[in-house]
Amino acid sequence: MRSDTLATETVPWPTEIRLKKDRKHLVVSYEDREPVEFTSEFLRVNSPSAEVQGHAPHQRKTVAGKAHVEIIAVEPVGNYAVKLVFDDLHNTGIFTWAYFKELDEQRESLWARYLKELEEKGLSRS
Question: Domains in the chain and their CATH numbers?
Answer without folding.
Answer: 4-116 (3.30.2020.30)
